[in-house]
Amino acid sequence: MTALADVNFAIYPGQIVALIGSSGAGKSTLLQLLNGTLQPTAGEVWAMGQLWQARSARRIQRQIGTIYQQLHLVPSLRVIHNVNAGHLGRWPFWKAAASLMWPLGVETAQAALAQVGIPEKLYARTDRLSGGQQQRVAIARVLVQDPAIMLADEPIASLDPERSHDIMRLLSRLVRERGKTLVVSLHGVEYAQRYCDRIIGLKQGQVQFDLPAQEVTPEQLHHLYQLDNPPPS
Asked: Which fold has domain 16-225?
């Protein structure tokens, strides 16, 4: 089964790009291709001006940070340890292991948590935080990594509408303040239109449209999601 076919586009520095489409449209697969956890069976993937290949993978991956839908936090650890995981691409093994006993990089972790609005949670156990706070820890981990490109796979899927807007406002602000690039997969079209510069619509593994957010029409969304009722005139 082909997950993606005839996908061809470029994303430029500083853009906030939303990937939208029904479940199974290929959004997560596309993000995995972009961060190198999947390799294409045909075609090429370029990142940071370089072709994804074995000899350049580690160098490129340091410049790409991913916020996963499942967050990939260690619940039993304190927040600082989960945030410090953003250093793992640079820290040697001995330093990472030592930091679990005596936290290192405290000022950097504290600054990242301050940027996401929860500096007081530095030494809290991660499993005692709310879902929205855990999402902020995952974002702080990427800020510590300091990548040029941020990828986010359904970062608001498990949050209520108010918290969803909080996280999308936070992401868009951090990306613009730091001059980063963000590619985010979203189920909620309203969030894509409000917070993103550009929207790529995926359906059955193919790009249906690639447009500035304000140019996406109700008719295009109707076709993308195969709504039962026609869009309002």
From this structure: Rossmann fold (3.40.50)
Q: Which residues pair with 211 in a beta bridge?
A: 199
**How high is the pLDDT of residue 93?**
79
The pLDDT tens digits for 100-117 are 888 888 999 999 999 999
Single-letter residue type at 111 = A
| Alpha carbons 200 and 92: distance in angstroms, whole number | 38
The three-point CA angle 91-95-98 to 5° equals 150
Q: What are phi and psi of 125, to 5 degrees?
A: -70, 135
The answer for residues whose C-beta is within 8 angstroms of residue 69's C-beta and 6 or more apart is 28, 153, 154, 155, 157, 158
pLDDT value, residue 233: 45
Highest mean pLDDT among 46-55, 177-186, 222-231: 177-186
What value does the mean pLDDT take over residues 145-156? 92
Residue 230 tokens, joined: 């026609």
Of 121, 169, 174, whose CA–CA distance to 146 is shortest?
Answer: 174
Exposure string (b/e) for 19-33, b if CB count within 10 Å is 16 or more?
bbbeeebbbbbbbbb
Paired strand residues for 104: none
Q: Which of 174, 141, 161 is nearest to 73 (CA)?
A: 141
